[in-house]
Amino acid sequence: MTLPFHDLDQALFARAQTLLDDEWLSKDADLAPLLPVVLARNVGQDWHKAGTFRHHLVGVARSLALWQQPRDVRLLGLLHSVYGNAFVDLVKFDAASERGRLAELVGERAEHLVYLFCTMSRTQFVQRVMAGQIEADGSMVLEKNGQPMLLTPFEVAAFIIVSMADSIEQWFSWQDDIYSQFPQVQSQRPQAVHWAASLWPGPMRPSGRMLHQIASLGLALQHPALKNLLPLPPVFGQCAQPLAASDEAAATSLYWSVIQLDQPLVDLDAATAVLEHAVRHNPWVGEPQMVLAQLYLSAGRAEDAERAATSALQCFSAWGNAWDKRVQWDAWVAWTRILRQSAQQGSWPERLDKLNNLALRG
């Protein structure tokens, strides 16, 4: 059975390459002026899920930049939690006294988006998007403090896209457990009883359930009143393809079984077959395809390795963040490029120690 590999979009890959530099944000004319202000609020010292709060804010902004979102949406990504919210008790700007200060820095429209995103019920928003409760004109009604709150179609589209970037940047198995069944969060589980789930960062498995939700959010952007308001993120076939929850769970489990070496350790055919099934279940993330490319190289299957590595590179270029958070996005991209180069050259080290010498050329 043919594997669902992707071709490489050269324009998308070129955009991704510009974001591999750690200093990309300082070169962004829209976002760079905000960087000193945000850093002055000590975001680089605050813990946040798989890294620091700075890592998170920059990672969300990176995906939005890759997805070619307009200035106000990218600013929302960089500042999306600075007033605090129900999920993050990190208040970097006081909404009662500093809204004017932030509006001076980013403009009233961008500040309004940040304020709404921080103060509305994100849980309620995600629930209603996934339930298809978007009005015919693209607007949405939420409840806030017992009163109706109307989001415009632009706000709905922007908040969907930022929610997609926010989730892919931060979510991994630790949150699968402590935020089980989000957005229907089970809040009555005592930490002391479920101490094993609470240990951070846990086994660092990729999420077994969040990509299904991100795909569902993306599908909502196909709403006739939303589709042309903002550029569609280049994931899940331009937000046109679903990912079943069962397929995501199966793919994550199969992938992790190979990573944990829960396969025969002498011959690689079983591990290869398991990863191929993982890719069939979920062809939208790069890590399983990247590992599969290395197995193909080890088996002397250079053509298959090139196809797998090229497809993995396309997936990494589409997201701008890693699905498997054991290493950073730029490291996944770098190793994938090594694999692709080796496949194109028809070479792969025969000795383990020579893997340490590999370098990208050209």
Automatic annotation (TrEMBL):
Superkingdom of origin: Bacteria
Start and end residues of each DUF6817 domain: 40-122
Residue ranges the record marks as coiled coil: none
PANTHER family, alphabetized: E3 UBIQUITIN-PROTEIN LIGASE
Protein name: Tetratricopeptide repeat protein
